[in-house]
Amino acid sequence: VQLVEAGGGLVQAGGSLRLSCAASGFTLDDYAIGWFLQAPGKEREGLTCRHQRTYYADSVKGRFTISSDNAKNTVYLQMDSLKPEDTAIYYCAVCMVVAGTIRSSGSWGQGTQVTVSS
User: Fold this and answer.
1) CA distance 25 to 116
2) Residue 84: helix, strand or coil by DSSP?
3) What does the alpha-carbon distance between residue 11 and residue 34 come to, in Å, rounded to a whole number?
4) CB burial class (10 A; 0-12, 13-18, 19+) of residue 6?
5) DSSP per position, 15-76
6) Rg of the chain over CA atoms, in angstroms?
7) DSSP 8-state secondary structure symbol assigned to residue 86
8) pLDDT tens string for the chain (118 positions)?
9) Residues β-bridged to residue 35
């Protein structure tokens, strides 16, 4: 069971990026899958969690969109209107929503670095 993130990079504030999360060893659509970020010196934060419903953290609502391509067994994170404070390593993982907070009980991949310049 493996999740591999890709698509990070350097982008100017206001720009867009699309991250991908490819699964191997299991079918993504059978699980709630979400995106998380970890900024330098901070704890990992849940951004979005999607299965039967889709949840977004307030910090990304209206700017980020999670989607999936079942044929490719891949989940995407479209990130628009990026801000310097979005700079972080982004991870995908199995997710859950507990008392309104997006959490993960799964293992973590290597992540993909997103850097937003001002």
Assistant:
1) 33
2) helix
3) 22
4) middle
5) --EEEEEEEESS-GGGS-EEEEEE-TTS--EEEEEESSSEEE-TTTTTTEEEEEETTTTEEE
6) 13
7) G
8) 789 999 999 999 999 999 999 999 999 889 999 999 999 999 999 999 998 899 999 999 999 999 999 999 999 999 999 999 999 999 999 999 999 999 997 788 899 999 999 9
9) 48, 92
Between the alpha carbon of residue 51 and those of residues 38, 88, 101, the distances in Å are 22, 24, 15
Task: Give the rounded distance of the alpha carbon of 79 from its chain centre.
Answer: 9
The number of angstroms, rounded, from the C-alpha of 110 to the middle of its chain's C-alpha atoms is 13
Distance CA 50, CA 21 (A): 13
